[in-house]
Amino acid sequence: MTAFEELMAFQRETSALAQIAGRLGWDQETVMPRGAAQQRGEEMAAIEAVLHARRSDPRVAELLERAEPECEVSAAHLREIRRAYDRATKVPADLAKTIARVTSEAQGKWAQARADEDVAAFLPVLEEVVSLKREEGAALAQGGDIYDAMVEDYEPHTTGAQIAEIFDAMRPRLVALRAAVLDRPAPKAVEGSFDERKQMQLSHKLAVAFGYDLSRGRVDKAVHPFSSGSGADVRITTRTSESDPFNCIYSTIHEVGHAAYEQGIHPDFALTPLGRGVSMGVHESQSRIYENQLGRSRAFTRWLFGEMTETFGDFGIADADEFYAAVNRVHNGYIRTEADEVQYNLHIMLRFDLERALMTGDLQVSDLEAAWNDRFEADFGYPVNKPSNGCLQDVHWSVGLFGYFPTYSLGNVYAGCLHEALRGAVPDLDAQLEAGDTTRATGWLRENLQRHGGLYAPRDVIRRASGQEPGPEPLLRYLEKKFGSLYGL
């Protein structure tokens, strides 16, 4: 074999092992018995030790030195392997193993603390996670900004300062839109009791409607919905609430967006550095455009109203227009994943500022709950009523995902750009969505973005697909037009 072929064979085995580690995480979130948490932590630590050893193996450096790219794809492979190797060799193996063990255990402690509404029970292990992630960040940054090093894991070539600049540009118009909308009478909400078994049946139907291939995936339930895997095994989870069917419906569509990205990557890239989404921001652009610009559109909700009526019978909403207003109802709430499009990014900005302060040491873990509650009341105008609606609501920090939260809003920004281009490319989109047909829309996304996997850098793939430099203006125009119309502004 050539050096490049040998390197790719080694990388393929490493990627396969990483998929196994991911499957352990899926199992932990879905069907693992609660009493297995400590043992699972040891299992995760063991496989992380193997992965870290492979990712930092000196043979990788030697092969990178000799490997010659023959085309754009092989050059991208080498670029991504070199980037991963450089990061892996900066983190001591013992530290990587410890982080895997502690975060696996912390996830279970977070879930229990959340169920018990007991912040104090979670803070000791969160303190340990934050300390370990600071140590990892310092190793990666090598004298640079620790938080930037964290962000690099999820959104390459992006810094905390660049994110802050985008958020500063968005915040005034979002705050103004929120105030104007909430000053208007709220539309009727969907209320009642919705059989959770029927919700899951509708969930599966929606997954298929948005192009999810169930021969290479499955839909399960979890406390916090997520997507897992790539290539031929991409799984999603959703959740149900007897009083809120939208929780299940839009969690499913959102996660299908993630899964469709992974399933849509060119099969030649499977188990290679290019065989996964290029960044979490680009990943989120897919889940958000599926969920919001498509799934919450007036056209698609007209079809969904019929499906809801067929599934649940008369549920108190008179017609498709009233249903569209209910789906897009702007209202006070605590939960990020349940937030409307107007307020969602304000939830992300709160988390971005807090986690950035945790990584720099400007905020101590012991002060996190108070800082969260103060910031939430300042931003939203009412106090947090319980920890599960506050700093315990998200799993991310328990598993060490610092730098992840801002990619949700970057995904919204990217989705705004993609949506404008999609509307131009598919002028009869609304007629198709009204029939419950997403194939032209999802096909355009697959062809112009998803199939590339990690071939291009995050902003490059958005620029190529949308024909414009990524920025918040298209998203803000979309939000102001949509909610201005809905609320008569």
UniProtKB/TrEMBL annotation:
List, alphabetically, the InterPro entries matched.
Peptidase_M32_Taq
Active site, UniProt feature: E255
Keyword terms: Carboxypeptidase, Hydrolase, Metal-binding, Metalloprotease, Protease, Zinc
Q: Which reaction does it catalyse?
A: Release of a C-terminal amino acid with broad specificity, except for -Pro
Q: Where does Zn(2+) bind?
A: H254, H258, E284
GO MF entries: metal ion binding; metallocarboxypeptidase activity
Family designation = Belongs to the peptidase M32 family.
Q: What does this protein do?
A: Broad specificity carboxypetidase that releases amino acids sequentially from the C-terminus, including neutral, aromatic, polar and basic residues.
Q: What is this protein called?
A: Metal-dependent carboxypeptidase
